[in-house]
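Q: Hi! Curious about what Class I SAM-dependent methyltransferase looks like structurally. Here's the sequence.
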Amino acid sequence: MNAFAGTPAYYRRFRPGIPVALATLLDQTAPTGSPRRLLDIGSGPGLVVHALRQYFDDLVAVDAEPGMLTEAEAMLRPTLDAAQRLQLRHALAEDFLPPEAWQPHLVTCGRVFHRLNQPRFLDRLSEYLAPDGVVAVFSDRSLWTAGTPWQQTAREVVQDFLGEQRKAGDGPFSTPGPPYEEVLRASSFSHVTSAVVPVRRQWTISQVLGYLYSTSFAAPHLFGDHRDAFESAVTNALTPLADSGVLTEDNAFTVLTARRPNAHEGR
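A: Let's find out. The predicted structure is below.
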């Protein structure tokens, strides 16, 4: 079963997306062009494209899960003006090729980068990224790895129901590979810069449950007949930790932007 089976509607509704500061950073990092082109890999329901849409004329969102693309269509299409063009493509990142002569100026890749054959993806990307184009790899801490007391408590409830080992759908979560910066420096995009973008979020308990159901480690189908019991357990565990019903999270996005060395020298 797909690791994100049953999650797309929750993903669209409960994932917080990227902050304005990160969208601004990506806009300022990418080269200009006319038309200016964005490619988002592992787009999910289109949260990154939604945050960046004002900066680009052509937008392509790629995902391997058809349900995610259905949600992306519903989220993105009504927000675009008549001059913008949106394409939704069902493909693996490592296999994707854009339309002939279509060269993106910015390629964004969030947490999905962990799941990719990274060298193969970057090799394929080198075939079509604009000569001065930028690839951006970024992620914040998920609930599984974040450290505030309420997040630790929510994770412990998930483990009580599903076991100590982190899941990715019906299988185990794969262990991390080499650091992303090392992988990028070994590719054609060896000029790498890094930044950290902090973000503060506030959650209700129902939003936390929705977020959990958007993840591969707590997808709804994993709980089977125990889903109601799980929701009650989360609610009971988090209620004492909420301040007037609100749970606060301080997080940060780690952002790596990479380009070809010769493109950097020409800027």
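A: A fun detail: Residues 8 and 68 are 5 Å apart (CA to CA).
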